[in-house]
């Protein structure tokens, strides 16, 4: 039995997942096996909220990491990881580095691996982007963009100011003449420092405008290997 089949997870649809593979391939099947072992160990040990989600294979040649929002249940996180780890391995079969994201209606998760130490080291700035259809009731993109900026400014300092176990913030703002409610959360991997986290969240906000707020999307999510930003007009 595959370790990741232990949680009977509903499979995400294709539009709910994304991945990025790095350059260069592993040069031996032993390292590919070590990647599998490292992910199995990560999955087995992952525990919210007091496990930072980093591990390595027994030969210390492959390092893995995972991230779930601390607001969700342990079994929900494991269900998300059980869908995302095989998806990443399938789509980055031999590459030395890779990251994948699964974004569902109420939560998301990230997994990554590399052939070098990743704890405390910022990843390359690659992004996954997910958006909802345009919100016809909110026809003013400038108002939504300003609302997203307000939400980002409120959340990012709080998230970046977290400790070595949790860098996470959740909240809401009102925007526009009609006082639309906008909800969201931000999170960084807890191993990176405050300034690195802030930069990542600023970049996530810029990516959010490109994919989502300028297109009047009802909701949007931008994710990297070190942080993410999520907003919605629906209370969660």
Task: Report the CATH superfamily of the largest domain.
Answer: Gnk2 domain, C-X8-C-X2-C motif
In terms of per-residue confidence, which ranges show pLDDT below 50 for 5 or more consecutive residues? 1-9
Please give the radius of gyration in angstroms: 18 Å
Q: Give the class from helix and strand content and strand pairing.
A: alpha+beta
Number of domains: 2
**What is the overall shape?**
elongated
The percentage helix is 25-40%
Order of helices and strands: EHEEHEEEHEEHEE
| Averaged pLDDT | 88
Give the topology.
Blueprint (H helix, E strand, L loop, with lengths): L16 E5 L7 H17 L8 E3 L6 E5 L6 H18 L6 E6 L4 E7 L13 E4 L9 H20 L6 E9 L4 E9 L5 H18 L7 E5 L3 E6 L4
Pfam family, one: Stress-antifung
InterPro entries: GNK2, GNK2_sf
Organism: Mikania micrantha (bitter vine)
Written description of the protein model:
It is a single chain. The protein folds into two domains: 117 residues, Gnk2 domain, C-X8-C-X2-C motif (Killer Toxin P4, Chain A), CATH 3.30.430; 102 residues, Killer Toxin P4, Chain A. A hairpin with a 3-residue loop joins strand 9 and strand 10. With 236 residues, it is α+β, with helices and mostly antiparallel strands. The chain is elongated. The N terminus is likely disordered. Helix content is 31%, strand content 25%. It has four helices and ten strands. The chain has a five-stranded antiparallel β-sheet with strand order 1-4-5-3-2. Strands 6-9-10-8-7 form a five-stranded antiparallel β-sheet. Helix 3 packs antiparallel against helix 4.
């Amino acid at each position: 039995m595959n370790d990741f089949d232990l949680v009977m997870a509903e499979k995400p649809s294709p539009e709910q997942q994304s991945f990025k593979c790095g350059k260069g391939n592993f040069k031996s099947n032993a390292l590919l096996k070590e990647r599998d072992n490292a992910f199995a160990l990560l999955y087995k040990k992952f525990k919210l909220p007091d496990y930072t989600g980093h591990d390595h294979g027994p030969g210390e040649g492959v390092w893995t990491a995972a991230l779930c929002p601390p607001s969700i249940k342990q079994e929900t996180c494991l269900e998300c990881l059980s869908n995302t780890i095989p998806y990443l391995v399938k789509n980055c079969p031999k590459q030395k580095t890779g990251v994948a994201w699964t974004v569902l209606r109420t939560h998301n998760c990230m997994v990554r691996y590399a052939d070098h130490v990743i704890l405390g080291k910022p990843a390359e700035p690659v992004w996954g982007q997910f958006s909802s259809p345009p919100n016809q009731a909110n026809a003013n993109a400038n108002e939504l963009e300003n609302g997203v900026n307000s939400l980002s400014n409120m959340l990012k300092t709080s998230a970046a100011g977290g400790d070595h176990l949790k860098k996470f913030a959740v909240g809401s703002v009102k925007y526009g003449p009609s006082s639309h409610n906008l909800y969201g959360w931000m999170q960084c991997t807890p191993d990176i420092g405050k300034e690195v986290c802030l930069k990542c969240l600023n970049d996530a906000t810029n990516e959010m405008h490109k994919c989502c707020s300028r297109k009047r999307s009802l909701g949007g999510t931008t994710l990297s290997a070190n942080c993410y930003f999520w907003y919605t007009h629906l209370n969660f």
